[in-house]
């Protein structure tokens, strides 16, 4: 599925707006990652365990976002954003949101992208 952070897609015409969609996940922090992060923060450097957890949470939220767009009849998402908030001391909410649309390619570059995404095979 084509997903962009812009309000339009160059080379594509938005034929229909299907509505706002979102994908949500709530993650608890791994105690071992947090202990490691606490130690690492004293010396500096990337918190690898926390980075991995955040990436996994964002991917899960994006997958749910795409499924929501498909269920509303969309083949693309425009104005995609993330929102993250803390719930209590150990939970993190990750929300991916945007607008589901039906978009069709209008130039050769967009048609190539559509073929790569498998739009022509449906």
UniProtKB/TrEMBL annotation:
Q: What is this protein called?
A: UPF0145 protein FDO65_01575
Q: Name the InterPro entries on file.
A: UPF0145_dom_sf, UPF0145_YbjQ-like
Assigned protein family: Belongs to the UPF0145 family.
- Organism of origin is Nakamurella flava
Segments forming a coiled coil: none
Going by the entry's taxonomy, the superkingdom of the source organism is recorded as: Bacteria
Q: Which HAMAP family match?
A: UPF0145
